[in-house]
Amino acid sequence: MNQGGKLKPNLQRSASTAESASRFSSYLSQPFWHYFWTYVLLGAIACVMLLPLVWLVSTAFKAPTEDIFQFPPRFLPAQPTLQNFVTVWQTNPFGRYLFNSTLVAVLTVGLNLLFCSLAAYPLARLRFRGQNLIFTLVVATILIPFQIVMIPLYILAVQLGLRNSYLGLIFPAIASAFGIFLLRQAFQGVPKELEEAARMDGCSEVGIWWFVMLPSIRPALVTLAIFVFIGSWSDFLWPLIILDRPEFYTLPLGVAQLAGAFSLDWRLIAAGSVISVAPILLFFIVMQHYIVPTESGSGVKG
Q1: How far is Cα 152 from Cα 176, in angstroms, rounded to an integer?
Q2: Fold of the domain built from segment(s) 91-299
Q3: 297 confidence band (pLDDT: 50, 70, 90)
């Protein structure tokens, strides 16, 4: 009887794999023109979206004697140079800006994952009065633009003495309604058998949350981490409001300092922007390998 219970999920998985392979082979057997124009359209859209980034990188490596606004644009520099990056790094404390952005982004991601998972777990796995109402109110706050709560947040931060501090930069993003919603949906997808097995082993609610639930929703955690990291790294408005001391400036504010009152050197601005964007691309490339579907049910025996 036990062997039959084990064989049934394996047979279902094999049937699903065979069906997927059959669909893929039939898709490949279709005439090329059936999907050719789809690829052409997607490729054109991708090129249009990449053009600003390509122009930015190209401008950052162009010499001062080269026209960056010529038409048609020239994306390959005639005389590639690193002088723009050297000038930006030597004339501005970009090392300090990079440290500030990294510290703020890492702390923001860690605290956001912690508090959002702590809030999402009881909303997904526990049962209490007003549970659905609380979740509805949390999700409804997604519709409120940041500009509406910006002034109350600033007043609260000033009253708490958080101006010109790293904690003040992190303060608005330590939790988010989107993060709670995303992790709640992920928690609901974890098989109940895993939770029941942990309870039978004497695991507390905190232990179930830490040892069972969080490892089971790793793709959702990584996805949220990417969103939070990008949002924190590229945030300009809140640091501009909460800071007036340059030693706490992040990279977006540092890039804005490159724009003078009476002159603009787009090569320097492009070089500073590349320095600011490169860590985001690197972080996404590294973390995307962890965004894979996990079979939580693999820990459940048939």
Answers
A1: 16
A2: MetI-like fold (1.10.3720)
A3: very low
